[in-house]
Amino acid sequence: MIKAIQVGLGFWGFDWTRKVLPNVPTVEMVGYVDANPDALLRVQNELGIPAAQCFTSLAEALKAVDAADLVIATLRTEAHFPVVCEALELGLNVLVEKPFTTTMAEAKALVALAEQQSRLLMVSQNYRHQPAPIAVAELIGAQKFGPVNMVSVDFRRHAPTQGYRYWDFPDPLLADMSIHHFDLMRMVLGDDPRRVSCRTWNPAGSPFAHHPVGLATIEFERGTIVSYRGSWMSSGPVTPWAGEWAVDCSGGEIWWTSRDEFLGQSGSDRVRLRPLEGETQDVALVAPRYADRLGTLASIAQAIETGAIPARFSSGRDNLFSLALVQATIASAMRDGEWVDIDEIMA
Predict the structure, then answer these.
(1) 48 to each of 11, 22, 82, 95, 327, how far by Cα in Å?
(2) What's the pLDDT tens digit per position in 62-77?
(3) How far apart, in whole angstroms, are the C-alpha atoms of residue 241 and residue 259?
(4) How far apart are CA 160 and CA 208, in angstroms?
């Protein structure tokens, strides 16, 4: 049993406390930390968390609990670096929400510190833990239709009518949403990006302070080109959260979508094979034992307990490339779509 302390009980942290932490039986929660006393009172009053398990600092929590193995960092992005740094220096493993950090320098420093401390650092890339992308990664890895030539990804949502709340978030598409899609590109292709060209804009009548719409062309190391279109202001048909994907291969197309609550079942996924010759067929998907955020938490718990790294584990080091892709698209957009090499961002 892995003993864990959660740090960060705000809007999204509270959601973790309520929906995720009680549902992974290999993790025992021994502490909850937030500098805001009101946040601590909320989890006590609404979720029945004992006051004896609530603390205003990680150091205070560690003095009070018998033992702890893991910190679950569910704070705002700009607070990730100091909290993760403190947890690693105190000898704890860390699961941190995405985006990993605000800068590549911070991310690299945390990766180096984790390795120096011989501790696990994982970024909660929860979209990896869904049946469709897992199946597609396996199909592509097995060369079901041969080499991949091109990938098209579309994400469409209309934020003003769907409860979006972060109108002042910098780069609300690329940093807050596209990070999921960029990370999935790396996972399903089993490849890393080489360079990117991106344009973003803010349409008339938008409540966003920054650009919620964008187009990107991403070239991967093995030559695959990904065409990406994303919009928080789309008036078109709503896509699932993971978007709609068409993977064009030499012998056919793999079409898929994931995290689709509009099919009447939250998280329902679809994968469809379209060979050059023959009939289109749906792939029977196998649901993972723990999906989405539960999957990330169960994954790091398994890694700590067994010492073996599970498949599709989003370590801090691995996630540097997903963060670099976000930073490269933002840099390209600021340069009016100029090609930006990933090496420039990783340097």
Answers:
(1) 17, 12, 29, 24, 40
(2) 999 999 999 999 999 9
(3) 6
(4) 9
* Structure-block tokens of residue 141: 């890895």
pTM: 0.95
Q: Is 114 contained in some domain?
A: yes
pLDDT tens profile 129-181: 999 999 999 999 999 999 999 999 999 999 999 888 889 999 999 998 999 99
- Please state whether beta strands 148-156 and 225-231 pair in parallel, antiparallel, or not at all (unpaired): parallel
Tell me which residue of 19, 9, 10 sits closest to 296, measured CA to CA: 19
Please compute, for residue 201, the number of CA atoms within 13 A of its CA located in the half-sphere on the CB side: 9
- Structural domain that includes position 107: 2-119
Domain end among 76, 91, 119: 119
User: Kindly report the CA angle at 101 between 100 and 104, in degrees rounded to 5?
Assistant: 105
How many Å apart are CA 123 and CA 258, to the nearest integer? 20
Who contacts 133 (Cβ-Cβ below 8 Å, separation ≥6)? 127, 184, 187, 188, 242, 256, 258, 269
